[in-house]
């Protein structure tokens, strides 16, 4: 019987020798969901000038409590003239303060008549003013290399005037689903066959991790067909992912096919679901190797395996170590579970409002690895140690699926 490896051993094997893919430059409009290949530095102070935080009147705080002539009108984007002592300026949100002004009073507090404004007393210097450099100083590092760009980050980069950014290219993946029983959705379903769900599920999940799926196919349960498909898939990809065919059945040919075309580094884990995981390398004719990840064929095993292994692999290929580990949260179990000799990764739904600020974890009632429905509402994996007995109220570790 082959040795059962730990999750830590599998991750070490998977990531050994993996280095970030090359960089490319993209337009900022295409940067969301990409990973920075180099730091972004602020080109200017933000805000770039003292600006009004609201619609109102700009003045010297020393002139508050008087009726002041309105000397000018300053809209956003304007270049104001210096403010004469003893006067004020009509100003709008985001507009630059005129030189000489040091505060803004909101328009609701001002009475205006005959070209002058009655200003209330008690204004302080800096009131309702967004000071220059409050958010960033020119030359300050805005975002580090390895940062995953979301909408807020893209907006911040745009605010600094960067039109293009250097990012890691998306690691390329080939996705192979093995099994004579598989039928593509939309085709007639013959007796004894099932629809291919794993290839579509993984094809939707992998881009979320940063991969680009450039090839996807079903492979027959034949050794030659499996070996040929693996060899061809490795030539233009960084990673080859298979679903099914890694167990010990007579129709499971993936492990032998990998060994015939490349090298198998690790097989079988002490986890549930996903025990028959296989890891290795497949050579390219032009040089180098593609990573191989063989996921179990049961849908939940493929789903859980993708989060535990393909997400950290994507992080390594993208040079984003902060994305390697799933966020971990302690939660209060609202279920009972007894484990055997393997670590259990249970699909759970978290409720953050149920118990004195501590998240409560509710498990799907049937945790069988064939039931993909258990993953639909799951937002975490509850990590249950081997030979453990969990009762409602026990504190458990959960890995957040994000």
From TrEMBL:
Residue ranges of domain MoaB/Mog in the record: 174-316
What GO MF terms are annotated?
metal ion binding; molybdopterin molybdotransferase activity
Top EC category: transferase
Provide a GO CC annotation, any one. cytosol
The cofactor named in the record is: Mg(2+)
What this protein catalyses is: adenylyl-molybdopterin + molybdate = Mo-molybdopterin + AMP + H(+)
Q: Does the keyword Metal-binding apply?
A: yes
Which keywords annotate this record?
Magnesium, Metal-binding, Molybdenum, Molybdenum cofactor biosynthesis, Transferase
Which InterPro entries did the record assign? Answer: MoaB/Mog-like_dom_sf, MoaB/Mog_dom, MoCF_biosynth_CS, MoeA-like, MoeA_C_domain_IV, MoeA_C_domain_IV_sf, MoeA_linker/N, MoeA_linker/N_sf
Q: Which PROSITE patterns match?
A: MOCF_BIOSYNTHESIS_2
| Superkingdom as given in the UniProt entry | Bacteria
Which residues are the signal sequence here?
A: none
The record's EC number reads 2.10.1.1
User: Which pathway does the protein contribute to?
Assistant: Cofactor biosynthesis; molybdopterin biosynthesis
* GO annotation terms (biological process): Mo-molybdopterin cofactor biosynthetic process
Q: What does this protein do?
A: Catalyzes the insertion of molybdate into adenylated molybdopterin with the concomitant release of AMP.
Stated family? Belongs to the MoeA family.
Name of protein: Molybdopterin molybdenumtransferase
Q: Which organism is it from?
A: Halotalea alkalilenta
